[in-house]
Amino acid sequence: MQTALLFETVEDIFRRVFGELKPRTAPPVFEVRYFPYANVDSTIRLQEGHKRVVVKISDLLEGAPAPIQEALAHILLRKLYRKPPLEKYNRRYRLYLNRADVRRKAMLVRQMRGRKRIVSPKGNAYDLDEIFEDLNARFFDGLLARPRLTWSPRCSRRQLGHFDPAHNAIVISRLFDSPEVPRYLVEYIMYHEMLHLKHPVEYRSHRRCVHTAEFRENERKFPFYTQANKLLKKL
């Protein structure tokens, strides 16, 4: 006796999920394509007066199992139609992204496709190389390997600093490269990003923990921790 196996295409999955969300609405035409994004990104949008839905998914997910495609369809369609997300689908999707093999593949893709603009560590008021080495000696026993250091191209207020593990780079907002900014504030931002070198991201089941309890404990050891945070809130 042969068993008939039904293989859904990704368009079939989106149509089925749409039927679950809007059972009394005629389904639109679904156009789902995979793109070589630098990150695990996905977008969804309506076109032609709600008659067509265009979905663009990172090609990192092209070979993902059907339950993961289904979870992503729920996440994207609920976002599109402004429905509250269901935790079971969010959890399923995050569990997959947090798998070690998927993380390694995503990191390699970011290194190959991603662009990281490195300007210069030397600013008008502060030299990030000098600040890193000073902090490394004072707080890390000189044990941290120096990554690529750079001021951001623009004075960003949304992202004051970040560590990019894919490109091994610490970027500090040029907003702080001014003689009017106290040195301890630049040091604090650099110190925070250096802690990401000491305490890498931890993956716990479906959760991605960037700032662990140990990270926060070390952060509070910075001598001007309170003053720096007060000043950042004013900015």
Q: What CATH architecture label of the largest domain applies?
A: 2-Layer Sandwich
What's the overall geometry?
A: elongated
Measured by DSSP, the beta-strand proportion falls in: 15-25%
- Spatial separation of the terminal alpha carbons: 71 Å
Which sheet architecture does the biggest sheet show?
3 strands, mixed
Give the rounded overall mean pLDDT. 90
Category by helix and strand content = alpha/beta
Unreliably modeled segments: 1-5
Number of helices: 8
CATH topology name of the largest domain? Zincin-like
CATH superfamily of the largest domain: Metalloproteases ("zincins"), catalytic domain
Largest beta sheet: what is the strand line-up?
1-3-2
Question: What does this protein structure show overall?
Answer:
Helices cover 41% and strands 16% of the residues. It is an alpha/beta fold and 235 residues long. It has two domains: 10-113, 2-Layer Sandwich (Zincin-like); 128-234, Zincin-like (2-Layer Sandwich). The strands form three sheets. The chain has a three-stranded mixed sheet with strand order 1-3-2, with helices on one face. The protein has a three-stranded mixed sheet with strand order 4-6-5, covered by helices on one side. Helix 5 (128-139) crosses helix 6 (183-198). The radius of gyration is 23 Å and the shape is elongated. 21% of the residues are buried.
